[in-house]
Please model this.
Amino acid sequence: MKFYNTLSRQKEEFVPLAPPCVGMYTCGPTVYNFAHIGNLRAFTFEDLLRRYLEYKGYDVQHVMNITDVEDKIIRTVRESGKTLREVTDFFTTEFFRDLDALNIKRAHVTPRATETIPDIIKLIEALIARKHAYVADDSSVYYSIQSFPEYGKLSHRKLDEQRAGARVKQDEYAKEQMADFALWKTWNEADGPVKWDSPWGPGRPGWHIECSAMSIKHLGASFDLHCGGEDLVFPHHEDEIAQSEAATGKPFVKYWLHNAHLLVEGKKMSKSAGNFFTLRDLLAKGWTGREIRYALLSCHYRDPLNFTFDGLQGARSALQRMDEFLLKLQETAALETSDELADLTSQFDAALDDDLNISAALGALFEFIREANKRMLDPLEATNVLATWRHFDAVLGFGIPVKSDVPVEVQGLVEERQAARKAKNFKQSDEIRDQLAKQGWVIEDTPKGPRAKRG
RNA sequence: GGCGGGUUAGCCAAGUGGUAAGGCGGGAGUCUGCAAAACUCCUAUGCGUCGGUUCGAAUCCGACACCCGCCUCCA
Model:
C-alpha cells in the first residue's frame, strides 16, 4: 500500500510505526459556522483512508480536533452575545450531524482545544525551556523559527524566498521575526470573556499549538498519519512539525497526506459567486448524503474536484445502477455460506493500494456489474458477490440497499394489474401502474413475473 | 516573484513507454402489449500547443499557453 507523502513529494510504501496499530490525526473543523462542501471533501477523503486502513486489517486510532477557540469564533461570540460554549457547542453538534449524513465515521477521540489548555501550556513551557520560544513584551509567546533549522521541510520552502505578503500586518504583534508565530496570545479587550490563565498571564492558545498538543496527547510524540486540506501544508502543518519536534526531540509524523481543493461548477467556491454550498443546502435541494458522498469520493483526493450538479446527477444514476444490481443479487442469493471473489477483491485492493485510486476501484466494480448482469448469476454466486460487496462497502460507505417489503395492498394492486394484462386489458393495467407510481412503487415485468420496487 | 497541482470525448474521470478503464449524458437496437430494468452497438485515429528522444509516447525531455492552490490562522 502506497501513499503520496507531502514530506517527500513521492508515493511511499506505507509501513506503520507499530503495526497493526495506526495513529491517525485529521485536522477538524473550526466551529463557528456550518461546514461547507469543500470542508466535507477533506473529511470524506480522510474517511476513505481510515476505512481502507481498517479494511486492510489495521487497528486505527483516529483523532480529530475540534477547534473551539479562534479569532472568528471570538468575533461570533462578540457579535452574537452568546457564550463561547454556546456557539461552539451548536456548531460542533451540527458538524457531527453533517458527518453522519455523509456516513463518515467519527474519530475515536475528538478533543476540543479548550479542554486541552493545560497540555498546551505544558508544551509551550517545554518550548520556552528549550529556547524554541520566547515571551514577547506584551506577554504573548512566540515560536522562534530560527531555532528550528528544518523549518520548511514539509512545504519545501525557504522563508527568505517568500514575498513579504500584503496580508501580513507588520506591526500587529510584538514578534522578533516576521515569520515567528504565536503559541500563546495575550488577552485583549476584544476577546471579552474568552481567556485562560497561564504562566504568562491571561490569554488563549495560538492556532497551531492546539494540534500539536492534542495529537501528542492522544497519539504520542510520533505517529503515522496526519491529514488535512492542501491549504494547511503551510503554515499550519509546517508549524506543527516545528513545535512538536522541537518540544519532544522526536520525529512527529511519518506520513502527511493532503487533499486538493474543489471547484464548484468550474469556479472557486465563494459566497459572492453564488456557488457556496453547505451540506444542508444540498440536502434541502433533495440530494442525499450518499449521493454527495459519491460525488466527493469518486475523484482522486489529490486532484482538484469540480463539484457540479451534473456530477451529482451522475452520482445519483451511478448509485441507482449499483443499487439495482445489489437488489437483484439479494433476490437470487442463497442462504448458504459464501466465499469472497478473489479476482474482484484483488482488483479493488490493487487500485486502492495505489494511493487510494478510487476511480480505478469503482471502474473494476462497474465492469463487474456489467459482466454479472449479462449472465444471470446463480444463487450461490449471488451470495458470494454480495458478501464481497459488503466487504467493499465497509470502505466505500455507500450502503447496501435493502429490499422494501411490499405492503399487501400494493401486492394486491400488482396482482390485479397482472390479471388485467393476462386479459389483455392494457388500459386498466396501465391505470393501475400509474396508481402504484403515485404511491412510489415501480413495476417491472420480468420473465419471472412482475417485480415491485420503490421508485 | 517563490513553491506546488492541473489540462484525456458533451460532462466527470482512470491510465506514467506498447497503441485510450469506468461512470453520467446522447443515438440506434434487443427484450416488452407499452414501459421499466438489463444487454448489444455507436458516441476521443486521439489525450492543452509546438518541438525532441524512441521501433513505438497521453505516458520521457524541452519550450509555450491557459486554469488552480499556497506564500501567517482558509479543507
Notes: Residues 163-172 of chain A have pLDDT under 50 and may be disordered. Residues 101 and 238 of chain A are 32 Å apart (CA to CA). The radius of gyration of chain A is 27 Å. The longest strand of chain A covers residues 223-229.
